[in-house]
Write a structure and sequence with these properties.
28% helix, 7 helices, 220 residues, two-stranded antiparallel ribbon, globular, 24% strand, Rossmann fold, alpha/beta, 7-stranded mixed β-sheet
């Protein structure tokens, strides 16, 4: 029961999950891990926010070590991951198999996704940022090592990457469906070109020098 002013809300528990499962999938316990690996609970949050359903396709265009893919597969979604680094794609595959889950891994560029137009039911991803980012070898090495705190001061190569990725996400996502993006800076300045509307944005503090943003986008 929740009391607010003169209104009382009564509720019943309709569903619960075993939270211990998240501990078993911690990055440190996976066969392949990197310091940038997203934590299982956060990965499940972005999967849930995407509103993907069992049997539907969820895409992670920056899949990294596969954290989001594992949570999508765990709820019955058809998980598809793309990463520009072959090492990451192979490592994510190893992690997913280790936990008895399923996903399709593709070595490819999030700026030119090898996926048909409007064929994806949901997208959930953690955008690359700062020192840990890998970008095309055509970029200036000095830019690759840049670390920033907001979109306005994000290095040009990352702004281009984020903008191009958003446009591709918009292309492959089905109309009316959602894309959820974790980033180190607000995405609003980049959304005009992507033709997706932000319906939610949540900020959380990682540590004193880093905050993350979870932005929920909907394709018109």
């Amino acid at each position: 029961m929740l009391l607010t002013g003169r209104i009382a809300f009564f509720s019943v528990l309709s569903h619960s999950i075993d939270k211990k499962q998240f501990q078993s999938r911690k990055p440190s316990l996976r066969p392949f891990s990197r310091p940038i690996s997203i934590q299982p609970k956060l990965a499940r949050v972005v999967v849930n926010l995407s509103e993907v359903r069992a049997g539907e396709v969820l895409l992670d265009p920056f899949c990294g070590t596969g954290g989001i893919l594992m949570e999508a597969s765990a709820i019955g979604a058809r998980a598809v991951g793309v990463d520009i680094q072959q090492e990451m794609a192979k490592g994510a595959c190893k992690n997913i198999e280790f936990y008895g889950l399923n996903a399709e891994l593709i070595v490819g560029d999030a700026q030119e996704l090898p996926i048909r137009d409007e064929s994806v039911d949901a997208i959930a991803t953690d955008f690359p940022y700062g020192r840990s980012s890998f970008v095309s070898s055509t970029q200036d090495p000095k830019q690759r090592n840049s670390s920033t705190a907001n979109t306005a001061t994000t290095p040009p190569h990352l702004r281009r990457l984020w903008s191009s990725a958003l446009e591709e996400m918009n292309r492959v996502l089905k109309p009316g469906r959602k894309a959820v993006v974790v980033s180190h800076a607000p995405l609003f300045p980049l959304l005009r070109s992507a033709e997706m509307n932000a319906v939610e944005c949540h900020k959380y503090r990682v540590h004193k020098s880093l905050s993350r943003y979870i932005t929920v986008l909907r394709k018109a």
